[in-house]
Design goal:
The structure holds 2 protein chains of 2 kinds. By secondary structure, chain A is an alpha+beta fold. Among the domains of chain A are: about 115-165, no CATH class; about 185-225, no CATH class. Helix content of chain A is about 30%, strand content about 15%. In chain A, strands 3-4-5 form a 3-stranded antiparallel β-sheet, with helices on one face. Chain A is elongated, with a radius of gyration of 30 Å. Chain B is globular and about 45 Å long. Chain B contains 7 helices and 5 strands. The chains are: A alpha+beta, B alpha/beta.
């Protein structure tokens, strides 16, 4: 089955632990599992070659089932449950591969990309004059002659030649907010999971149910801090 | 003889912050992927300025499901921003078929009935288009003022109106880091 970019419903771009950007995609937002898959198994020979066990007692691969990870930290992983001839089932977790990105480890010097190239007729005097004339005629037909001057002033702000340097939004954003590449902090993920477990089971904690709500909250927080 | 002037209005809604309206002139500048990139960048700038933050950990972008929003220029620019540490993760998702009931379209407005527009306008409810449909607007400045005053609700209120002139050719600037489209075809 072959699908192109037109069928893609979600794109995910993130960095790996080395700070290298990775790109994944999905054809259905609600279904777990990211593409490109770790491997494409198109034939029996592929299956035997990929999942061949080191121990000869396992024998040939009989069949395999694949499913995507749904837990935190495994969402870009596909799991392969492989059944061997001796009846053993072995699960292989394989990480999704990223779409190849050219020069993924090179930071582009955005300043070197200037002067920018613009598409369109913004510096074309004739094109601007035509549009301004159209606007003036529309305003004149509606007896709004007082507004003509406002439009003339608006069009007078346009650049007159290719040398004009516009305010580059991208350059401005990067220059203002540039910092080290953000990578996954597994400690942060762990604390998140811990807090969630704590919130789910907080009613099981050994404190009396009759205390006031405010004290209860305070006690909860204290207990959490002590346990952490 | 009829004379036509048109401008292109792109709404960027930042959930929990407000909305940004970008006005461009399609007769003078080509639209498409470059304009989409420019609006995304202006939206990010707007959100960071409103929230007074220096970086965004996870960025979720929802775009209309049209071909110009699926060009690799958008992904390339986002990759470059990630490499510069502006974000850690970006998810770009495309709105489903029939998304006219989603909040962004509800904000802009789909009501085409003029009478309904007048009634809603009098009752101070409805969308931006509903409000603007019953008013005469003849200048850009007037248009800006009317859009800014159109909605009073905090979540959907348009907080800034920007005229986008001189859209850079991001396609040409970032062709060297485009993701390989061939990898996307096979599943």
């Amino acid at each position: 089955m072959f699908l192109g970019i037109s069928s893609v419903k979600c794109i995910r771009i993130n960095t790996d632990v080395d700070g290298i950007p990775r790109v994944f995609y999905k054809y259905d937002i609600a279904t777990p599992g990211w593409y490109p898959k770790p491997t494409e198994i198109s034939s029996e020979a592929d299956m035997q070659r990929l999942f061949k066990h080191d121990d000869p007692e396992f024998g040939d691969v009989i069949r395999y089932t694949e499913y995507p990870g749904i837990a935190i930290g495994t969402r870009q992983t596909w799991f392969y449950d492989v059944t061997y001839a001796n009846g053993e089932v072995v699960t292989f977790p394989l990480k999704c591969i990223s779409l190849p990105i050219k020069n993924s480890d090179v930071l582009i010097a955005l300043n070197d990309l200037l002067p920018q190239v613009f598409r369109g007729k913004i510096v074309d005097d004739a094109a601007r004059e035509t549009i301004l004339n159209n606007i003036i005629k529309i305003l004149a037909n509606r007896h709004l002659n007082n507004d003509i001057q406002s439009w003339r002033e608006f069009f007078a702000k346009f650049p007159v030649n290719d040398d004009y340097v516009f305010d580059n939004t991208l350059l401005k954003l990067v220059n203002k907010h540039k910092r080290a590449v953000q990578v996954s902090l597994y400690a942060y993920v762990f604390i998140n999971i811990y807090i969630n477990i704590f919130l789910i089971f907080r009613n099981q904690l050994p404190y009396q149910q009759s205390i006031t709500p405010h004290s209860m909250i305070w006690f909860n927080q204290l207990y959490f801090l002590v346990v952490l | 003889m009829s004379y036509i002037y048109c401008n292109s209005n792109i709404f960027t809604q930042v959930h929990g912050v407000g909305s940004l309206l970008c006005i461009s002139l399609p007769d003078l500048e080509k639209q498409g992927g470059n304009l989409t990139v420019e609006c995304i960048l202006r939206g990010i700038n707007f959100a960071m300025k409103e929230r007074e933050i220096d970086y965004i950990r996870n960025l979720y972008i929802q775009l209309d499901n049209v071909s110009s929003n699926k060009c690799f220029t958008i992904y390339s620019v986002l990759i470059e921003l990630i490499k510069n540490g502006i974000f850690k993760k970006v998810k770009v998702s495309y709105l489903i078929v029939g998304h006219t009931h989603e909040d962004i379209d509800a904000l802009i407005g789909i009501q085409n009935i003029f009478i309904l527009a007048i009634i809603l306008s009098r009752l101070h409810i409805g969308s931006i288009v509903t409000k603007l449909r019953v008013q005469d607007i003849s200048t850009i400045e007037e248009f800006k003022q009317k859009v800014l005053a159109a909605l009073k609700t905090s979540h959907g209120k348009v907080k800034d109106v920007q005229v986008v002139l001189g859209i850079p050719d991001y396609d040409k600037m970032f062709c060297q880091i485009m993701p390989d489209i061939k990898g996307m075809k096979a599943i």
